[in-house]
Amino acid sequence: MFDLLFENIERKIEITEEDKAFCKTLFIPKKLRKKQYLLQAGDIAEYVAFVNKGLLRSYSVDEKGEEHIIQFAPEDWWITDMNSFLTCEEAIYNIDALEDTEILLLDKPSQDKLFEHIPKFERYFRILIQASFVAMHKRLLSTITNTAEEKYMRMLKTYPDLVQRVPQHMIASFLGIKPETISRIRKKQASNS
Amino acid sequence: MKKTIAVIGAGGAMGSALSKSLAASGHHILLMDKDSEKCHKTYDSILSELPNADIEILNCIHEGSWEADVIIPAVAYEVQREIADYIKDVVTGKIVISLINPMNEDKSKLLTSPLSSAAEELQNYLPYSKVVKAFNTISPSDFKNISNADCFIAGDDEIAVATVSSLAKDSGMMPQLAGNLSASRTLEGMILILIQSCRKNNISESGCFKILIPKT
Ligand SMILES: NC(=O)c1ccc[n+]([C@@H]2O[C@H](COP(=O)([O-])OP(=O)(O)OC[C@H]3O[C@@H](n4cnc5c(N)ncnc54)[C@H](OP(=O)(O)O)[C@@H]3O)[C@@H](O)[C@H]2O)c1
Asked: A3-145 has which fold?
């Protein structure tokens, strides 16, 4: 249940068997069914979640009821509504499961306990947040400057597995383009090759 | 927020009454029982009264406890340890409600030492879960018959106690905060008084407590 999480952590910091045992007393193991919510907009994000198996997404819903996907989180990824988690303000994102999913949850008090007992976990989470900051800015820039085709090709290159795993309309929602546009790009790709 | 609640022993007297009550408040209830026939009976009975209830039967208590936010072992005291050992690795950080009264066979005394309680023993078996004592002084028949019964709640984790209080309130009871988990020693003893009084009055086991507060 913890193997993938510990591998992820050990790519960034060194931890002992004792540290691992301590982690096991803090993380909440939880299963979600496909379509089940981890978080609903308006509630407070109590947890950061590590995905051990399955796939989650965060998204917002506009006044017209249209969904805008912010992030996908397959195995080995972390997800939450970071603003809500850090400030205890109401979440603006929904997070739900796109497949049957197994996650490990860490709440704020447990995270604080982890930092207090094993300070190098601060380093671990700093590295995660740095990486997510960089990725977010790349995504922002791409959203503003790239054409639909460039965005889609970038997505194919960065997350080839996700493009296979997720329905096309969700990829479109993530990229902020129309599903028909993706169909058109795919057709063009096929005829070019 | 809607919770996923695993009821272990959902075919029993207490498990079925509590499942129905929690389902009526809109929670997602996972019904589990060793006796699958009794479990199906609970399932049918809830759906006939509450056609929109979000309930389902699961066969494995490990799986159900893994999925749940709150776990309620509604089983005899004698099997609480076995169940705790079985679900231990999937209930870290979760609320586990103790409604178990550790009584001897003729229900005349408690089986636990005066310096402990069934709830504290459960907390020892599940050191990383949040055990909360609740519902143990309420009879199954009174979940629907008596409204506003006092439901005593004891626990060491403030947030967990608040969550269980709101579950009790949703079920039409008046939550009464009884203190730390060690208050379970008193709460578990209270059931003996209730049983005594029913026997004296020649009625079947029922009734509940109510604290009366003088008007100022
Ligand atoms: N009844 C009351 O008035 C009352 C009031 C307050 C609190 N309580 C407490 O509530 C608890 C349950 O009492 P109850 O009267 O509801 O008893 P019950 O009717 O015998 O219910 C217990 C249920 O749990 C099942 N079970 C036993 N071991 C199991 C396991 N390993 N996995 C899954 N299910 C299992 C039993 O199945 P089998 O029958 O096949 O063993 C039975 O269906 C007791 O601890 C009691 O002290 C009862």
From this structure: Jelly Rolls (2.60.120)
